[in-house]
From TrEMBL:
Residues 57-79 are annotated as: Disordered. Residues 75-129 form the YbgF trimerisation domain. Pfam families: TolA_bind_tri. One of its GO terms (biological process) is protein trimerization. InterPro entries: YbgF_tri. It comes from marine metagenome. This is YbgF trimerisation domain-containing protein.
Length: 138
């Protein structure tokens, strides 16, 4: 049997966690202009490109890279940059969904634990009542 040493008020812990996560999220919005992945291109003669990922990542700006006219020689680079930004936005969305699911699982576990402790308390009380009735009759 698992018994918690300290009883928490329903919702107060989760409210604090929610506010903390909201604060972190809002604090990250200020860094939206910083690109979480720095892409460096080498000279046009070189076929290699270096991509340096920085971790942890900051939120991504909502604006995609501008598209230039189709006859521009840098068109493939612009398309790659645009695709990179879209993928970064999708990663951030997925991370947000993971955090939401993680919160729901933790919340479900806490509710389950509270219900288990309440049921255990009731069963112990019922056992004590039956014992007192048996000793009173006998």
């Amino acid at each position: 049997m698992y018994i918690s040493c300290c009883r928490r008020e329903p919702g107060s812990t989760w409210l604090s966690i929610g506010l903390l996560l909201l604060g972190w999220f809002l604090a990250g919005i200020g860094h939206a202009s910083e690109s979480p992945i720095r892409v460096e291109t080498l000279s046009s003669d070189s076929v290699e490109r270096q991509i340096t990922e920085e971790f942890p990542t900051a939120p991504i700006a909502d604006e995609p890279a501008p598209i230039v006219d189709e006859e521009s020689p840098s068109r493939p680079n612009m398309e790659n940059q645009y695709q990179l930004q879209i993928l970064q936005q999708e990663v951030m969305t997925l991370r947000g969904q993971i955090e939401e699911l993680r919160y729901e699982v933790q919340r479900g576990k806490a509710i389950q634990e509270d219900r288990y402790l309440e049921l255990d308390r009731r069963l112990q009380g019922l056992g004590e009542v039956e014992a007192s009735q048996a000793s009173g009759e006998g």
